Amino acid sequence: MSRLNYHHLYYFWRVAKMGNLTATAAHLHISQSALSSQIKQLEQTMNVALFNRQNRKLILTEVGQRTLNYADDIFSKGEELESLLRKGVVTTNQKIHIGMLSTMSRNFIENFIAPLQGSSDVQYSLHARGQENLLNGVANHQFDLALTNIEVRGTDEQFWQCQLLARQAVAIIGPPGLNLEQKSPRAYQHQRWVLPVRESPIRAGFDGFCALHQIKPDILAEADDMAMLRLLARDSGALAVIPGVVVKDELLTGKLVHYMTLPNVFENFYGVTVKRQFQHQIINELFTKPLVNN
Question: Is 293 inside any structural domain?
Fold first, then answer.
């Protein structure tokens, strides 16, 4: 029976962490060919493919990512042991890489990662991407999970695990003093608006609301980014169609006022991973922990 060679595993671990064979070889002061040979021996001994080699790039396979997770634990424990023996101190950290859609509400992201912020033994990183790059990052195991407000559908449904994490009601929000709280929807006829772009599900819901009540909105600006919508809502003097979580600070301070909740219009927030037999424990905990309602 073949036994795992931890020397080979260490070289795999360093390449997987750095993401580049040439740079890793230089850092370890060995030749690139020798380093590549060590990794190939590990793959042959264990009868697995740890990397997909695409256009001179090394992309972790799913087995490679799982191996990396184990290697992280193994060599982190080794570093702990060394720290204990040398200094009498042990530090323990788990690492999680989170991709997030670049146009999403940062307030939602902050709420989602709140359990990690209170943990002394978890280290996390956040990476903003467009939807396509975000999903590619999950597929290539660069991210442990992705956060997005776009449901993942299509031909790769069997590959993805897309879980609805929360849904936020969408409201009409604007500067104080407009005296619109108790009036009918037709009172919004002569207001100026800042809106999500037409491709947004939120915009589709607002357009349906306008069609139902025969409102022709006077559109001042459109944006596909929640951070920009927040700034426009705060500074333009126009009404905004936006989830309350995005402008929660402005609502609390009275800079903005909630005038109306749009009926049956929501922004949905999803957590996306690739389907694995064994999921990251921290991700499971985040997916099952209820979010604070904002």
Answer: no
Residue 10, burial from CB neighbour count under 10 angstroms (0-12, 13-18, 19+)? middle
pLDDT at 104: 85
pLDDT at 292: 47
- In order, the DSSP letters of 191-208 are -EEEEE-TTSHHHHHHHH
pLDDT tens across 277-294, in order? 556 677 877 887 765 444
Q: Say how many CA atoms lie within 13 Å of 79 toward its Cβ.
A: 10
CA 172, CA 63: separation in Å to the nearest integer? 48
In this predicted model, what pLDDT tens digit does every residue of 166-180 receive, in sequence order?
888 999 999 998 888
First to last CA, the chain: 56
pLDDT per position as a tens digit, 82-98? 767 776 655 556 678 89
CATH of the domain at 101: 3.40.190.10
Query: Per-residue pLDDT averaged across 116-128, rounded?
Result: 81
Say yes or no: 282 and 155 in one domain.
yes
